[in-house]
Design a protein that fits this description.
CATH class of the largest domain: Mainly Alpha
Number of strands: 6
Strand content: 5-15%
Shape: elongated
Helix content: 55-70%
Number of helices: 11
Distance between the termini: 73 Å
Length: about 325
């Protein structure tokens, strides 16, 4: 029985032919994502914004406008209400009331009683509270975690390969993170600590895929000294393409299942991961590899110079006959 192959052995797709279009499109998407985050902002969850968050589920489609009037009439402050995961579930975010935990519990009970009075089918799934000080610390810690992960990974690749590979991988990671943040800015899905964990996972996956391609590029640079760099990059990408397709497809199937059946708690994380897998695969092929061309990487880039080679040759002792 012959094994099924998603990618034939003789695949030879000229990926580098579209490098100018791909990199130009990626730069435009990065700029658009930055603009979206700056203009629309991210819909921070309670983890980052602070306050009181309640998740409520109904047996039928939630009437957000009616629910907003009910919550505001309860005297707990102006509430931000939106659907959460599916049309039957909503998240209610309120400012923290002044006072101690007793004041918070009193506010929660007052809001729950007001909702239950008009919606007997309301099911209160969870209640979370985060102070403003803690939320500020979480924003700083999450941002630093993403930044340090990107810089640390690039430094590792710099020492593992060469500085050109480190620059290429850093730009690919910036591309992946920027597009993920842009997606959350345009959709206004809740951005919380789960999404930070998803972004860090995306960085790791994208790095893994990029290193596989880079390792084959370095191997082929040593093997094919007379081949042009574009041909070497195309060859390396096509040789690693079966592994890339199988890995990405496996992840997409698993994450797609989580998006559909994982529930509202895992919905944001699963969507972020699913998007990140697609973006990370794209950046490994169309961003990380083509940048090596503009960074002047070639078959002779990492060969030792004549002077260095001479110093590494063992000395030959001359003996006089006689």
């Amino acid at each position: 029985m012959r094994l099924m192959k998603l990618v034939p052995d003789n695949t030879n797709i000229p990926f580098l032919r579209w490098r100018n279009i791909a990199v130009g499109l990626s730069i435009l998407m990065i700029l658009a994502s930055i603009a979206l985050v700056a203009i629309r902002g991210l819909n921070f969850g309670v983890d980052f914004e602070g306050g009181l968050m309640m998740e409520v589920r109904f047996d039928q489609t939630a009437q957000v406008d009616d629910l907003r009037r009910t919550v505001n009439a309860a005297g707990a402050g102006t509430g931000a209400i939106q659907t959460f995961g599916d049309p039957n579930t909503v998240s209610i975010r309120l400012p923290l009331p002044p006072g101690d935990d007793a004041a918070v519990q009193a506010t929660v009970k007052r809001v729950q009683d007001a909702i239950s009075a008009t919606n007997p089918d309301a099911q209160f799934r969870r209640v979370e509270t985060v102070s403003g000080k803690v939320s500020g610390e979480l924003i700083q810690a999450g941002g630093l975690a993403i930044l340090f992960a990107m810089v640390g990974i690039s430094i590792y690749i710099w020492f593992r390969f060469e500085w050109q590979f480190g620059v290429g991988s850093l730009f690919a990671l910036i591309h992946d993170v920027a597009l993920t943040l842009g997606f959350f800015a345009i959709t206004q899905m809740e951005f919380d600590l789960n999404i930070v964990a998803a972004v860090l996972t995306i960085i790791g996956y994208s790095l893994n895929d990029t290193i596989v391609v880079y390792d084959r590029v370095r191997e082929n640079l040593r093997k094919y000294r007379k081949m042009e760099i574009e041909g070497i990059l195309d060859l390396s990408i096509n040789e690693t393409l079966p592994r890339t397709i199988v890995t990405s497809l496996t992840m997409v199937i698993a994450l797609g299942t989580l998006v559909i059946f994982g529930g509202s708690v895992l919905f944001g994380f699963s969507v972020a991961m699913l998007l990140g897998i697609v973006i990370g695969t794209y950046s490994s092929i169309f961003i990380g590899a083509p940048l090596l061309v503009w960074l002047k990487v070639g078959p002779g880039s990492f060969l030792p110079t004549d002077a260095t080679a001479d110093t590494r040759r063992p000395a030959v002792r001359s003996e006089r006959k006689g």
